[in-house]
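Predict the assembly for these two chains.
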Amino acid sequence: MDPAGEEAHQVLQLSVVLFCGAAAIWLGVVAALLYTARRRRKSLSEQSASRFILFGGAVLPSVTLAALLSYSLWLMPGLRPFGQAASAVLHVEVTGKQYWWHVVYRRSNGPVVVSANEIRLPVGQRVELTLASSDVIHSFWIPALGGKMDMIPGRTNRLSLLANKAGTFRGPCAEFCGTSHALMAFAVVTMEAQAFQEWLGTQARPSPRAADDGAALFLRHGCGACHAVAGIDARGTIGPDLSHLGSRLTLGAGSLPNTADAIARFITEPERIKPGVQMPSFAMLPQDDIRNIAAWLKDLE
Amino acid sequence: MSRPAKTLPAKGRQAQEERLRSVWANPQGWRYWTTVNNTQIGLWYASASFAFMLFAGVLALLVRLQLAAPQNDLLSADFFNQAFTLHGTVMMFLFAVPVFEAVAIFLLPPMLGARELPFPRLGAFGFWSFFLGGIFVCGSIFFDAAPSSGWFMYPPLATDKEMSGIGADIWLLGLSFIEVASIAAAVELIVGIMKCRAPGMRINLMPLFAWYLLIVAGMILFAFPPLIAGDILFEMQRMFNWPFFDAERGGDPLLWQHLFWIFGHPEVYIIFLPAIALMAMIVPTFSQRPIVGYSWIVLAAVGTGFLSFGLWVHHMFTTGLPQISLAFFSAASEAVAIPTGVQIFVFIATMLAGRVIISTPMLFGIGGLATFIIGGLTGVMVALAPFDWQAHDTYFVVAHLHYVLIGGMLFPVTAGIYYYYPLVNARHLSDRLGTIAFWLMFVGFNVAFFPMHLSGLRGMPRRVFTYPANVGWDMLNLLSTVGAFIFASGILVVVFDVLRPKHRQPRAKINPWNAGTLEWISEPEENWGVRSIPLIESRYPLWDQKNLARNVNGGRFYLADAEEGRREGLVTSVLDAKPQQVLRVGGTSYVTIVSAFALGAVFIALTFHWWIVAAASGITSFCAILWWLWTGTAEIPEKLAKDVGLGLTLPLYASGPASVGWWAMFITMVGDATAFASLVFSYFFYWTIHRDFTAGIAGPGIHWPLAAALLFVCAWIATLAARQLNKQGREAGVRVVLVGACALTVAASAAGFAGPWLYGMDPTRHVYPATVWILVLWVLAHAAVGAVMHIYCLARSFAGRLTREHDIDIHNVVLYWHFMAVTAAITFAVVGLFPGVR
């Protein structure tokens, strides 16, 4: 409704046409229905009634629908230009998992950046997204930028997005994917091209705080078996990459605000926050350890 | 045209009525439940589906309560998912489709001037299957075992046993059972409409309701089998780990989406068209004139039915299919709006050309149309792919589909209840309560569902059990919840109006609305349908044929008596409704309940993997059905022909295309062939998505499949020879050939089995062996039925029930074998030859 991307913008224009047209047609038909109920009116002859069916029911809709169809078919190739994928400077691979998002940025010039549950895109540059799933069907959607595209196991889908306004948005999973489908979302940040490049640069390096005290606790309690943190010996791939967790806007794929307290809560009772989540509860760890790990993770910027 | 007979003496009339009454009477006491009379079955069917609707409505209210506020914790995520899954499932499978089968079973015979539908026992069987299956599916939620993967059951979420427990099996098996009942009803309705109309009711004089039901039953026949085929693949994966939808072993989750929506989209029209059919009966009555543009509306309905099979991909616009297919299906989806528009304009034109009488049914009808049009217009929007990319799987679609289904189905059905209630118990429903109910429902509905358009456009996805507080969805959702409760209170008023005791109310007169169609002759107290079967000369016989009611009720037309104490009706020709035969239909019997419950037990036992119970119930149901066929079908009458009145004498026995049984077999086999075609489609679907669809796994070879095909063709030829010999009256020859045909079938099955077996094809390893096996098993199961048919004919021959003159059984078996031979030939050609020519 409040577009910040090329596709969303075009679809909004299409929608305005559709809504106005629909309102006019509805008013016309309902007026006709109400008119029939009037007591004092002349009855139509059989012949003019048939003509009414022909024009109102067949000719008029055919013309309108043909026009609408042409409009939308004309839009389609421009909105999702898969032919010219090479022209995109940035490729983002997103993999849907129950119930979070694995994100990989690939540039022609520069190292690969791995992240999770948050997507940052440059304004004014077309980005090509590669969408896949590792378990069930999910659907990738950033309402403010464009339409959705499903992530289907065994298949790879592509999506092309062009942001034209800087801002922060929410992207939900749009295909029912299990118990906590409602809690599978991600934050989207569109940034000016320069700022985006800088951000990507910092993301490509390990967080300066990675080697702090919390790292030892993190490793000792086995967190690294599932989670990866750049710069230390944590290379797990089952759960989200936590290399720069502190810099992200939300926690748990959009289910909590990103604070140290929330991180501690997530470690203690993941199942209560997100029913059906794969992460087991670590409530048996000493409270201090949990607090320290949470604080350390929050510092990873 | 012959004229009605002169009046009978009062005494003779009374005696006739006594005989008719006792022939058509319902049994007393607890045996009442064994009746097969269409009036009773129709009412039970309708009551049961309404009860399921109220249950699903309560689930919807729970869903709305949970969503009334952000971050609400009234329901757990898991319960919420069960609730919305069951809500959709029950509304679609246990209410929207069955309620029309119910209305059709109740209304069609009187509307067509028939005493009964041609297979009353099949109708009862269908009802009991539906009832048992429905209770099983609905009951699951009380054990926290309801399906929870959405009514569309997408794999791999729904095929994974950890993510979706027994609920998925309950969905698959429970609904497969109900789908069988739906197809049974479709067969009965098609044959009833084509072959059991009153004499003179040519196909272009048929009431529009019958036209619509004919189209819808035809659609059921082509739409449900792909889902049944999909269910089979799905359950094979869940039960035996055959990887049809497992991407790692060559399967593809998208195949399910294709099969599901090839069913799912026509399903919408299967629901919507009968509601329009009710409107097509109500509008002329309250405009007091015949419908304008009869042929327009019939053509439009046929067009809608036809187009509805070419739209399914618009449910899959976001699955990453090529843009060219999106464009094609987008165009087809737009096109279906045109015949729909024609139908609405036919109603408006009829109202314009007549004088509209405002009444409760019209209020619901017009309110429904106004609501439906909004749903139609948003449908045009989501059919445009770029718009759908945004709106798909959001609350916009939730709003759209409820505007379509509630405006296009629930409101017209309620109009139908108010319109037809006098036919049920000779009393009117209250106009005052009806008006209150209408406004509660209309206002409540719009308050509940209009805001959903906006919450959807603001990005709220479907099927979320909670949502964050800061994204602008709070007020809209609260409003929807309030509206939902207002809507529900309107429905409660309708329920109260229907259930409140009315014995102190004055009797409604016969034909209270001065309608023009035949069903309004019938008297609610009498079970015989029509007192005598009239000659029809007009689309609105009560308006155009003078004294028709008096002549019918005076017994001055056909079959005014039941001298032999049998339930009898007329069979007429398909196009011109020329009388052809007197049909004796089955009466009260337990066999229907026993077979339905035993078959139900098979499905329920399979859900819980109780193999022994499943086998035992399978045998019980097999025996019950055989007993039913043996005692209840192809009965040899005591005389060749019978005088039906007005100087007309008709045969009591007919076989081949002249008999209703042959038509029922033909129609059933068309549905069966559609399911088979869906399996073949699946085979080639995997071929299209893989570079080498065999994945290097050995196929069943060429020799065994070809041998099997050849032997099946021989068995088919032997079956044809049996029919030929029977025609020549060579009894011994018939028996020998039947034994030979049976032996050939067994040999053919063994050869068919040998191919994949000897080449060691392991169906759990990859999807290629699994598809080969599923096709072969399909043929083997059909071969088993074919062999049973041979043995059955043999037994009938020995019992003297299959003779030269009485040859219904062999004709129907030959018809089955035509389909069988084609199925076997295609299967073995595909699995044997295709890997070589690919």
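Chain A touches chain B through 78 residues (CB under 8 Å). The mean pLDDT of chain A is 91.
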